[in-house]
Amino acid sequence: MSQNIENIRNVAIIAHVDHGKTTLVDQLLRQSGIFRSNQEIQERVMDSGDIERERGITILSKNTAVNYGDTKINIIDTPGHADFGGEVERVLKMVDGVVLVVDAFEGPMPQTKFVLRKALELNHPVVVCVNKVDRPEARPDEVVDEVLELFMELDANEDQLDSPFVFASARGGYASEDANAREGDMKPLFEAIINHIPAPKGDVNAPAQALISTIDYSEYLGRIGIGKIENGVLRVNDEVVVLNMHNAETQKKVRITKLYEFQGLQRVEVKEASVGNIVALSGIENIMIPLCLVRFGLTNTQSLSIYGIYSGMALPMIFFPTVLSNSIAVMLLPSISRAKEEGRNYYIRHSITVGFFLCMFLGFLCSFFFYFFSPLIGQKIFANEVAGIYIRTLSWLCPFLFLGTTMNSILNGLGNVKDTFFNSMTGALIRLAFIFFGIPLYGFRAFLLGVLCSQVVSAFMAYLRLLSITCKKNA
After folding, report:
1. How many other C-beta atoms are found inside a 10 Å radius of the C-beta of residue 415?
2. What is the reported pTM?
3. Rounded to whole angstroms, how far apart are CA atoms 255 and 240?
4. How far apart, in whole angstroms, are the C-alpha atoms of residue 290 and residue 238?
5. Among 157, 176, 185, 238, which is most exposed with the fewest C-beta within 10 angstroms?
6. DSSP, residue by residue, 237-289
7. Pairing relationship of beta strands 97-103 and 8-15 according to DSSP bridges
8. Coil, strand or helix: which one is 104?
9. Closest CA to 396 of 462, 454, 438
C-alpha cells in the first residue's frame, strides 16, 4: 500500500543563470550544520567542475542532502543556462517539488520560463524564492507580480498559483516572508520546503523499483546511476532487472555492488536504501565485471571475491599517490587560465613540457616502488597474496594516471572541456571492450590490461591534443 514518507523531501533548485541558486544551496548547507564550525568553505561549493568555477555557471546537476529537524531534504542544484536545459528536464523526475529562484531586480527571464514550464508540466508544487533583495535596485513587489503573471501564462493550476513566496539574500544568508527584512537566517526557506513540498509516496513492502535519471562518472567507480527509489528497498548484492524506458523488451539482470545516499557534499555508502530516497548505484562497468568472470567459468562467489580484491585492496593502493598529481593539477589550472587570457603561449608550452617530465618521473618512481614491494604490501597490509599480484600488475598505471590528470587539467584551464570529456569517454569505452570481450576469454587479467591500455591512451590523447593546440598558436 502506497504511503507518504514524511521524513524525506526531494526538491530541485531551478532558476535562470546567475540568479543565485548555487549560492542559495551553499547557505542551506552551511546553516544545516553540515560543515564544522572551523572548516574553511569556498564559495559555490556545488560547482565542482573547473569550467563551472571559471565561468561561474552550473553545467551539470549536483546532488546534496541536508537534515532539518527530523527531515532529510535531498536537494538537486540544476543548471540555469539554456544550453543545459535537458539536464534540468531529467532531474525534475527525481523530485516532488521545486524551489524557483528569481532575481529581485531582473525578475523572470527566458530560462525561468523554460524550467518553470517543465516543473508545472510534472504537476510539481513550487516555492518561489525572490533572491538578492539586498540589492540597491531590487524591486521585489514588482517581481512577485511578474512571477504570478508567468504562472498564469503557463496555465498553472490553483494550487500552483497559491505558491508561497520567500524573500532572501543568499549572499547575506537570510530569508523571510517579509520583503523588507535584512537580517535573519534561512529557517523560513527550510520551513517553506517542509510545509509546501509533499513527502515522496511509495510502498516500502512492494518489489524494489528505482528510476535512474542521471549518469555520473568516476575514475574509481566507473559509471554511476543516480535516481529515486519509487517502491521497495534496494540492498547491496540484490539482483535487479535493468529496463530500457525506450524499449521495454530490452532487459538485463544485474547485481547491485555499491549503493550510496547523499549527505552534504559526500556520497555515503550504505547497505540498503528505502522508498523515497535519492541514491547512487555503481556503474555498469563494475556490475558487468563479475558477470563476465562467470562467463569465463568462475562461480559467483569466486567472481565477487576477485572483484572485491581489485576494487577494495589493489586499486585504492595504486590511487593513493595520485594526491601528487592532483596537487600539480590544482596549482596549474588558475595559472594556465591566466596565461591564456594574457596570451603567454611560452608559459603554456613550458608548463606542458615540465608537467610531462615531472609526471613521468614521479609516476615511474611509484611504479618501481609498487612493482618491487607489491608482494610485501599484499602480505603485510592486506594479508592477501592475490592483492599483491594485482598491485604489481597495476603499478604501471602510475605514470599515466599522473600524466592524464595533469594534462587534462591544463586542457580545462585552456577551456577545452570537450577534449577532456572525449578523453574520459574513450578510456571508458576501451575498458568496456575488455570487460565484454576480454574477460570471458582470458579472465580478470584481460580487465587489468584494459585498465592499463585505457589510461595510457587517454593520457597520451590529452598530451598530444595539447601539443597540437600550442603548435597552432605558434603557426
Report:
1. 15
2. 0.58
3. 6
4. 14
5. 157
6. T-EEEEEETTEEEEEEEEE---EEEEEBTEEEE-SEEETT-EEEE--HHHHHH
7. parallel
8. coil
9. 454
Cell numbers at residue 450, please?
584494459
Written as nine digits, the cell of 350 is 613550458
Q: What cell does 263 get? A: 549527505
Backbone angles phi, psi at 44, to 5 degrees: 50, 60
Grid cell at residue 464: 598530444
The DSSP output letter for 310 is I
Q: How many CB atoms lie within 10 A of CB 247?
A: 8
Reported as type and span, the H/E element at residue 189 is helix 187-196
Which cell numbers in the block locate residue 454? Answer: 585505457
| Contact indicator for 419, 465 with CB cutoff of 8 Å | yes
Instruction: Give me the sheet containing 266-269, strands edge to edge.
Output: 209-218, 222-231, 278-281, 259-263, 266-269
pLDDT tens figures, 19-54 = 787 788 888 888 876 544 444 444 544 444 443 344
| C-alpha cell of residue 354 | 615540465
CB 64 within 8 A of CB 95: no
Helix (H) or strand (E) holding 65: strand 62-68
Location of C-alpha cell 563476465: 292
Count how many Cα atoms sit within 13 Å of the Cα of residue 123 in the half-sphere of its side chain. Answer: 1
Report the candidate in 63, 55, 154 with the shortest Cα–Cα distance to residue 108: 154
Q: Is 364 exposed, middle or buried (0-12, 13-18, 19+ CB in 10 A)?
A: middle
Whether the Cβ atoms of residue 107 and residue 142 lie closer than 8 Å to each other: yes
For 38-57, letters b (16+ CB in 10 Å) and e give eeeeeebbbbebbebbbeeb
* Residue the block writes with cell 534496494: 234
What's the Cα-to-Cα distance from 81 to each of 15, 44, 103, 214, rounded to whole Å? 9, 16, 15, 18
Residue 122 exposed, middle or buried by CB count within 10 Å (0-12, 13-18, 19+):
middle
With beta carbons less than 8 A apart as the criterion, state whether 144 and 107 touch.
no
Side chain identity at 231, as an amino acid letter? N
pLDDT tens digits for range 91-142: 888 899 999 999 999 889 888 888 888 889 889 999 999 999 998 899 999 9
